[in-house]
Amino acid sequence: MKKGRLLANAYLVLVFGFLYVPIAVLIAFSFNESKSRTVFTGFTFKWYQNLFHNDMVLKSLGVSLGVAFAAACIATVVGTLAAIGISSMNKRARGAVMAVSYVPVVNPEIITGVSLMLLFVVFNRQVSAALSWLLQREVDFQGFGLGTLLIAHITFCLPYVIFNVSPKLRQLDPAVYDAALDLGCNPRQAFFKVVLPQLTPAILSAFLISLTYSIDDFIISYFTSGTMQTLPIAIYSMTKKKVSPEINALSAIMFVVILTIILAANAVDSAKERRLRRAARAEEGRR
Amino acid sequence: MKHILKAKKRFLCLLLAGALAACLSPAALAAPDGVEVAPGYDYTRFKDAGITLNVYNWGEYISGGADGSMDVVKEFENLTGIRVNYTTYDTNESLYAKLKSGGGNYDVIIPSDYMIGKMAAEGMLEELDPANIPNAALIGDAYRSKPFDPQNKYSVAYTWGLVCIVYNRTMVDEGDLEQGWGILWDEKYAGQVLMFNNSRDAFAIAGKLLGNSINPGSVQEIEQAAEKLKEQKSVVQSYVMDEVFDKMGGGEAALAPYYVGDGVTMMADNPDLAMFIPAEGTNIYIDAMCIPKGSRNKEAAEMFINFMCETQVALANAEYICYSSPQVEVPALLDEETRENEMMYPGADMLSRCETMEVLPDELNSAMDKAWSDVRSYDAAGNGWVMPLMLVAMLALSGVGYWRKAVRRRRSQF
């Protein structure tokens, strides 16, 4: 019995070690005096100071966050609508559409990236040709940039939204929606007052997943960003010389921010639960 | 005398900037009166034109304002009123792929020698107008009219350097250095040698060892070099690019060929390290600024190139990047240790033994690509059983899956 407990604990430590030791090392080296990633020579805050003077890194962080936020918002709305549409299809059509939506998820990212790039190149050529013909002079349309990046990110986020919202939709009791209609709602009201509130947790998690995937993405952005640059691309391009410890500093800040948000969300959640439980107990006492 | 005054002024500036860097406000770092530029060039002619230049450079390859150094891009923006969209890449090949696919529209790029030759041959570069880049005259003769751009039509040199061998003095017997490049094949250091993870550099070393040019002249030469590289595999710990900084800095490997400027950076991290250049000679690389075809702001791009050749700017870049500068006024302004370093600024004797990389004809390029992937997948110990084993395992797994499904289906019938 005791031996089993020991093994279980060791396993737990191992799992969390693999998850968190690299992050701990990364944060530790963001305070390293020298640029070395192996020898700790002294404590300093200078990488944090440098980070705030490094326009290129800050700008690419801005692009990453902006694109991620916009793509996640749009993908969530479009994906939720798609999921609702899919749920009202007959079984065969639903199966077909779901299978098609699966393809981008299982497809290697590099193929998605290259094919999107080719699509945009062809599109640019066509638009250039059309404009040249219209204006009767040579026009070179260059559409690569924020727009293509955004389209690409929405594209790969969409399936995740659909697969997050669909199961929740299937769990819904159709009788509740019908009841709302019976009680005098029109379909729009019934959707916003009855269906949407029940979907909210799934939609929120879909949004967060999209946000994460979008910030993480390197390969697809690499092919579709044109002259824009996201944070992963900026970091990757440092590998010829040396990835600067400013990146450690930035990662540390991002980790702390996200950790704080998660802790705060959990605290709010558990406070709410406690309040509910207390209310329930009070109710019972009164009875 | 003038130089000394300048150096003094620079030192004061640095001191001031260093003191200001202590507070975090970004405004605090902007020098009060901007960078000192040569007179007689109108840097302000595009002040209100609302131009944005797309500059595409190697990562960490420009002085960026850290530790009180000059923020070159910002200085250029302040001086000219031109906005710069500064982005970065990791290899010549990815730069080429991006331009070739039409996935980006750039105004200034900084490829290396052989890539410039390739791009020029394919008509991907715009001819520069010398009238707009008077500072190109400050580039030393040794870095002009090279085979990749014989008439200096397309490029203005930005940095250069040699390939050397970085070694750890506590792990390597200095007597062995006489083997030249052969030391990277020495069984004595098996498992302690790092090697370039890029085909051109790796084949250049093998070629030099065989007594050939670093630019192979025939498929046969490539095959010989590939054989040599396969031989080396049992000695090599791993094929690396920037991981070399950590491995050498942390004493995990004894020997690694790399660029001299980066060797200096490694030596600063680990005092046990030293560099040497084999007597057979080595590769001298030149990275130069070019304007790709399709640039919409060619004259502004030329202004940027001219700015990069300003003495103060070139000096700041040379100090930040640690590579040698082709700008003739820079070496005298560098600190003595760097200036006197014969690998950073070698004499004519050494330079005469160095070769630049040239454009290879397509057939040799593809032969080299093929030979390189051959080398990388070659395994002397014969791990040939791994793939079949994996395949069998996968088949077995899917078989188990089907079997379980069948069992479940049979059960659910009852």
UniProtKB/TrEMBL annotation, chain B:
Presence of keyword ATP-binding: no
Database matches in Gene3D superfamilies: Periplasmic binding protein-like II
One CC-aspect GO term: periplasmic space
Listed InterPro entries: Sperm_putr-bd
Major localisation: periplasm
Molecular function, one GO term: polyamine binding
Top-level taxon: Bacteria
Keywords assigned: Periplasm, Signal, Transport
Name assigned to this protein: Extracellular solute-binding protein
Subcellular localization, as worded in the UniProt entry: Periplasm
Originating organism: Ruthenibacterium lactatiformans
GO BP, sorted A to Z: polyamine transport
PANTHER family, per database record: SPERMIDINE/PUTRESCINE-BINDING PERIPLASMIC PROTEIN (PTHR30222), SPERMIDINE_PUTRESCINE-BINDING PERIPLASMIC PROTEIN (PTHR30222:SF17)
